Amino acid sequence: MNDDATGSDWRPADPPPAASGCPAHTDAVPLSGLEYQQSPATVYQELRRAHGPVAPVLLDGDVPAWLVLSYPEVSFVTSHDDLFARDSRRWNQWENIPADWPLLPFVGYQPSVLFTEGAEHQRRAGVITEALEGVDQFELGVNCRRIADELIDAFAGSGEAELMSAYAHPLAMRAAVEMCGMAAHSTDTDDLVRDLRISLDTAEGEDPVAAYVRVQERIQRLVEDKREGPGADVVSRMLSHPEGLSDDAIVQDLISVVAAAQQPTANWICNTLRLLLTDDRFALNVSGGRVSVGEALTEVLWLDTPTQNFIGRWAVRDTLLGGRRIKAGDCLVLGLAAANTDPQIWPDGHVGAEGNGAHLSFSNGEHRCPYPAPLLADVIARTAVETLMERLPDVVLSVEPEDLVWRPSIWMRGLTSLPVEFTPTLR
Prior knowledge:
By secondary structure, the protein is an alpha+beta fold.
């Protein structure tokens, strides 16, 4: 979900030589369709049974790739940058990629932390890590509680709400932009939510490239503002870091930070609320109890992880993976959701029943979500869920659980809406 400096030319001008091999097989499966929206776990199970731990798939426009399905194989790929690297200029399919390909925001190379490797990646990730370490988690929790209360106040008196648009998404974005030093009460926040959503999940008639350009322009203005007037925020700490990253580099890296803080965290919040409101195991303890909320947050990361697939890695040289011959330049999609529900790591099929922190929802290896970002996301999500349950203790779904609709996305796992009702309250 990154752009180059101009936002207009996504394809690498001079990709390095790579084998011209194609991973497509006659039995390659399109990585699209309603099945991924309605029952992705069943799809991954069937793919694993038919193809093993690595399945041949077709991306938009029948572009071939590999979907890595098993926990051991995803862990191996993400732990071996020498074999499966992030620089997408290695891709052996660039000659088949049109200029308006919808996945270009994910794979079009540019010099951001997402695509750097080796020492440069360590340098860039180090700047992000140190900037995030400056966030006081207690203060973040207090701020998230304030944001949550303000959002709930806006609909508490009505006795009904749609929590995706009125709560989860704006809360995650406001928390993210406040950490970065951006004014939270502005139309920019709503615009960022919309454009990040478009760049991730494009609906008919929407332009993901244009949406990404708008995101980039807004972050560029933020960096310029913080260069002139620094403060106690993530952006200012990145600008003042001894590594001396350029403004362009900081803009690119901040887009990754903001996008990761908003869309996945918002879906984590709503997926957890859905679990609490639909699963009888949590019915007795949903009124803000820390134990049950914590269990629900963890279980969601195993069973309904907000980022279910991630593109990707590119093979550095010919190799074998899960019994498949992977050619240099082949694209690998990381099946994080499939890996988290891999029966190899869940004896007796009790997926999620005793979940711990070994899930791959924040990926793994050098390119995993940089510490302490997962801890900050947990503060945001936990505060959001606990505050809602505390403020609206009798909240229930206003539709039947089976009528909830998941987003039509193979990449993100989240609901299109979460309508609820409750006893109207006034503060």
